Amino acid sequence: MSVESVKKFFEDNNLPLKVEETEGDTATVKTAAATWGVEEDQIAKTMGYKLKSGEYILILTKGGARVDNKKFKDKFKEKATMIPHDEVLEATGHPIGGVCPFGLKRPLRVYLDKTLKEFEIVYPAGGSDHSAVKVPVDMLEGITQGEWVDVCKDPVPAE
Predict the structure, then answer these.
(1) What is the Cα–Cα distance from 125 to 102, expressed in whole angstroms?
(2) Which of 53, 137, 140, 145 is the most buried (most CB within 10 A)?
(3) Per-residue pLDDT averaged across 19-34, rounded?
(4) Rounded CA separation 103/10 (Å)
(5) Residues 78, 82, 83, 86: what is their CA dihedral angle, to the nearest 10 degrees?
């Protein structure tokens, strides 16, 4: 049903996007990148957090990025707490491995980490652990009404 809610969201909003479905596993960044034939960082990883108020939020980052706890706390004024596994489906309408910012069960605030700006095109999940959506980053911002943030660890310089 989750993939269907994403497709309906695209249709209802007249968006020229398509959910690509596959037999391959796309539940992790590594498997998604291998399945779609793109580099891991091009996978737009969607992570759900639960704030102390009980509000759920989504943060999208490039595939290999890691949230920096200090930056998260500076932005949200509290410690980063992932949505508990048993609440993910209820909070988003999507199963673990398919969480994306489209076709959500209820409106959630969406944050886009600046790491996504490294790419013109990214691949967030499409509502299941066997799907993705190829989407231009500038379109992703408009669709999600996402706020750009800097909450990921800075890359370690190569020696």
Answers:
(1) 9
(2) 140
(3) 92
(4) 8
(5) -140
